[in-house]
Specification:
3-stranded antiparallel beta sheet, Four Helix Bundle (Hemerythrin (Met), subunit A)
Length: 234
């Protein structure tokens, strides 16, 4: 796992971002243990901000803290993943309809700005940074729906959506900039009131890689666990 320099202004928030990147890139895989001492040593910080960062990620659902054992990256089984994918699609379809009904020119400008940030990240070739920028576009779309209940629900699931991103793939895009192009087509459809076109783009975007990820998860669940050594009778 590559260790970035956090500098003298290291905070728990920066540790959170470091751990998120490690999870998104696969450097920390689902079920993998996260050791406070190891992370604090790598980043050159005390264990206190690491502990705080882990608590934040646990609230998001990205990390699971097991009493007396420590923290691990949360695992995702096929059933949970399928439910998450379906629920995310429902939320984003609702956001599209609400945007068409309520979004202002200022809202569209905000979304366009986030799409441009996504394009810049894509040009660097950094997949983790690009996926985070993609998520920011989706957050902005949701916020522009002007529905506080939708926005709150989506925010509470962001950690799960980051895990979702580690399981799906961007391989179907010829290059990462295609993500930005796709979002530009989406906003054009929304601005002209083309609900069917905008919804079709959202569905295609959310379904990308889902089938393959579900197949991998189901295959992993069918692999028998290794048997322990039989214990004799007492």
């Amino acid at each position: 796992m590559t260790t970035p320099e956090l500098g003298r202004i290291s905070t728990a928030g920066k540790v959170v971002e470091y751990l998120r990147r490690a999870i998104e890139t696969g450097a920390l895989s689902p079920g993998g243990r996260i050791t406070e001492l190891e992370i604090s040593g790598k980043l050159g910080v005390s264990r206190s901000p690491v502990r705080e960062a882990l608590a934040t990620l646990a609230q998001e659902g990205v990390v699971t803290i097991i009493p007396y054992r420590g923290a691990i990256v949360s695992t995702v089984d096929a059933g949970r993943f399928a439910g998450l994918a379906a629920f995310r699609l429902v939320l984003e379809e609702f956001a599209v309809r609400e945007c068409i009904a309520h979004a202002s020119e200022l809202d569209y400008a905000r979304i366009t700005n986030e799409i441009e940030k996504l394009r810049k990240r894509a040009r660097t070739g950094n997949v983790s940074a690009t996926l985070e920028a993609d998520l920011h576009v989706h957050q902005t779309i949701v916020s522009c729906a002007n529905n506080p209940f939708l926005e709150r629900t989506y925010a509470e699931l962001l950690g799960h959506f980051r895990l979702y991103a580690t399981l799906t793939t961007t391989a179907d895009y010829q290059n990462l900039e295609d993500l930005a192009d796709e979002h530009e087509r989406w906003i054009e459809a929304v601005r002209r009131g083309d609900a069917a076109g905008a919804l079709a783009i959202v569905r295609a975007h959310n379904e990308l890689g889902v089938t393959e990820a579900l197949e991998r998860l189901r295959a992993a669940e069918t692999v028998p666990a290794p048997r322990g050594r039989p214990q004799g009778k007492r």
